[in-house]
Structures are given as structure tokens and as C-alpha cells.
TrEMBL record:
Protein name as annotated: dolichyl-phosphate beta-glucosyltransferase
Pathway info: Protein modification; protein glycosylation
Lineage: Bacteria, Candidatus Giovannoniibacteriota
Domain of life from the UniProt record: Bacteria
Single GO MF descriptor: dolichyl-phosphate beta-glucosyltransferase activity
Family the UniProt entry places it in: Belongs to the glycosyltransferase 2 family.
GO biological process: protein N-linked glycosylation
Coiled coil: none
Amino acid sequence: MPQPDVYLSVIVPAYNEAERLPKTLRRFHEYLSEQAYSYEILVVNDGSRDGTAEIAGRAVNDIKNLRIIDRKRNMGKGYTVREGMLAAYGRIRLFADADNATDISHFEAMRAFFDKGYEVVICSRDPKDAAGAKQAVSQVWWKRLLGNMGNLYIQWMAVPGIWDTQCGFKAFRDFAAEKIFNSAKINRWAFDVETLALAKRFGYKIGIVPANWINDPRTSVKFGSYFRTLWEVFKINRRLKKIKL
């Protein structure tokens, strides 16, 4: 069966997002339906225990070009994004968080990089990456502190030169997405680091767009996740050296 011709796939990993998902899907529909290019929205349910799957299923009737992957077992955000990236049809594949903290309209700035031949384009909340980046509603102090300390470690171990690896708004050309995510192994929070480290390892050009990011205090990232992420970064460092180009 021939694959549909789609310019943009938006992958939305969703774990217990019954409250936030409807507003985000409406915003995606509002923005994307006004664009000249073809698109799809792919919600990947990561074994949610609330009504995420049911709400996403009902939204199919109202949200244009919406597809659902409803997995019953929780496997982690990395696994979920990877599943969506490899199931997507788009020539460009973007993953965006279910809280829309980085608004979907940021994709317009990304397109300029893709038009110049970049294979990967990310949003950053750090002005050291891109002038004008900011956190319109900032995180609590301990998350900012841990994030800053952790980034120095991440740059040293895996992704030199990028100050914000964790912003949940990253886009890939289809061939880059398939190579990167077929090689990726991390299922939890450090998957962002792994995808960027693999992109660098494969020689892909990475463009950075400034984010106007609005924190949602209901995030599911817990205190212990930061330390698990650092351990996963160590494993990424060891594994990168074994990957054949």
C-alpha cells in the first residue's frame, strides 16, 4: 500500500494527558489547518492510566488528519517518540509535547533551516543557543539549577555545544529520523540527548530556533528523573563509540 504524501508529521507523546491534550490538539488544528502544506498529527498513547486514549479517540472526529497509536503498556517518553517517528509519514517529522509549552507556530522558523539543507532543527530555551530564547514562565529554582548543572555534564559526555538538549520540540528530515531513531535505545528522559548525540555522530547539520517557552507546573518530570538521566547519558557516551557510521 503506497505511503501518503505528507509534508509534516507532528508526533505527540502522551502519558496521562487527558486534561491538557484537548487544548493542545485544538491549537495544532487551528495552526496547521491554515498552512498550505499537507500534515498529520500522530498522538502516541504511552500506556496512560487516565482517559487519554478515549479523549484522543474522540478527537479524531473533530481534528483533521489525526491518527492515534494506543499502546496499553507504559514504556517511557523516549520509546513513545521513537515509535511515533518510525510510524510517521511526513517528509519532516516533529515531536511536540502534549502541553504545547513550545507553541506549534515555532515550526515556521524551523522551515528556513530545512530549506537550507539542515537535517535536524531544534528549539532551545537558552539564549546561548539562539538569541531571543526565553522562558516566558520559568521553572522552579531547583529544576533550573539541576538543569544547568546537568547540561555541563551532558555537553562534556555527549552533545558539545548545545545548551538546551531537553526542550520538547525537535524536528527531523524523514531519512534522518529513520536513521537516528532506528539506532536509538534510550526509553526514558535522556532520549533527547541520545537523538542529538546520534545526529552529531552521523554528521547531520543541527539548526537551533529560539523558543518562547511557557512552563506548565503539572509536568510529569520528577526529581529523581534528573539523576536517572545523568546515568543514561553515561551509557550514551559508552555506546556512541561503538556505533558504525
